[in-house]
Amino acid sequence: MKNVPYQTVFVELPDIEPLAKRIGAAPTGTRSDGVTPLYTVPIIQDHATGAVVSESAAIAAYLDKAYPSSGATLIPTGTKSLQLAFRDAVSAHFSAFRGFMIQGISPNMNDRTVALLKTRLSEQGIDYDAVFASEDKEKVWEKGMAGFSKIDEWFEGNEGPFVMGSEPCFSDAVLGAFLRYCRAAFGKDSKEWRNIVSQNGGKWVRYLENFAPYETIL
Amino acid sequence: MKNVPYQTVFVELPDIEPLAKRIGAAPTGTRSDGVTPLYTVPIIQDHATGAVVSESAAIAAYLDKAYPSSGATLIPTGTKSLQLAFRDAVSAHFSAFRGFMIQGISPNMNDRTVALLKTRLSEQGIDYDAVFASEDKEKVWEKGMAGFSKIDEWFEGNEGPFVMGSEPCFSDAVLGAFLRYCRAAFGKDSKEWRNIVSQNGGKWVRYLENFAPYETIL
């Protein structure tokens, strides 16, 4: 999106902390005990400047500052609080899918990543094996679908396919990432993804297609 | 905020629908049955143009269009989706206070307004008399306080006291309204309001003070 050359390095969940420490990436929060530093991806390491930045909004702000005239402006002046609120609101709507996503993505994860995920969830009081056994499965799914419709309403009357119009911004990266996560977790041919595809007149597939120019072939 | 002369007419809950119909204000949604039109305040009736507009974001858009060079621009170009997401996120954080606010504000309401409120809540499956009897009272309050800290994080590093900087926008009207609602519901001298006042280094009282130039004396 910033039209800057880059290479993606995928990192298994248990390898994030040692990698972050090795390259000097700061923790982005604390674990559920409120004390132990929490290391997360994405992290950016800019070999051109030596900068190492973690946490997606901080990365967006860094890229806008380091490459002001390249690609889209991710956080246009004055919109930072709005972009963070957008991330918060989208994250809340997608939280309904957490159980579905864990179930969907686990078969594609390495055992040691699943093991750490289980530990982290149990630290938050969430029983990994029970999270999806609930009888409210259909109700939770409906809630997630209602979230999509709510997000769809925000776009009503927009000039252009993106949150702020014709150019993508940080909030588009957030929403696009959640949608890609759903697609990857459920699988393109799954009942769940087909359900999302049919939601809001096919809006979400069209929305993801707008990112094609910015996507690397994986 | 738009520096346009106005007069506020306060309306009791049961009087909103007949008033809206009389002046030709559209419903803003449906009741919990998903069918019956729902009429809400705010509604604006502009005697200069004859326009009648309901729903706060629509009112903001109307005012920007009808009075483009007067006062603040409530929804700067390209920010509409972001402003709606902001309202959604703030509303979700404040929802933790619903029980507290109902309890706090009820003694100041007329009987027929309380009666309608009870009916509407019961239609949503919420028992008005039990909503506050829960044992999780302290936990719910903590959740609300955590919401304030989350909102505070959005403001970090902002240039100016408002969401978008030195000028207030629609999102400020939303956040300011929720804060005023809390203050009115709990009472300025209540334990609850003092707790909010002490949160985030006194941020929320300072934030409300920024609205002083825009406030009518009630």
From TrEMBL, chains A, B:
<dbReference type="InterPro" id="IPR054416">
    <property type="entry name" value="GST_UstS-like_C"/>
</dbReference>
<dbReference type="Pfam" id="PF22041">
    <property type="entry name" value="GST_C_7"/>
</dbReference>
<dbReference type="InterPro" id="IPR036249">
    <property type="entry name" value="Thioredoxin-like_sf"/>
</dbReference>
<dbReference type="Pfam" id="PF13409">
    <property type="entry name" value="GST_N_2"/>
</dbReference>
<protein>
    <recommendedName>
        <fullName>GST N-terminal domain-containing protein</fullName>
    </recommendedName>
</protein>
<dbReference type="InterPro" id="IPR004045">
    <property type="entry name" value="Glutathione_S-Trfase_N"/>
</dbReference>
<feature type="domain" description="GST N-terminal">
    <location>
        <begin position="1"/>
        <end position="71"/>
    </location>
</feature>
<dbReference type="InterPro" id="IPR036282">
    <property type="entry name" value="Glutathione-S-Trfase_C_sf"/>
</dbReference>
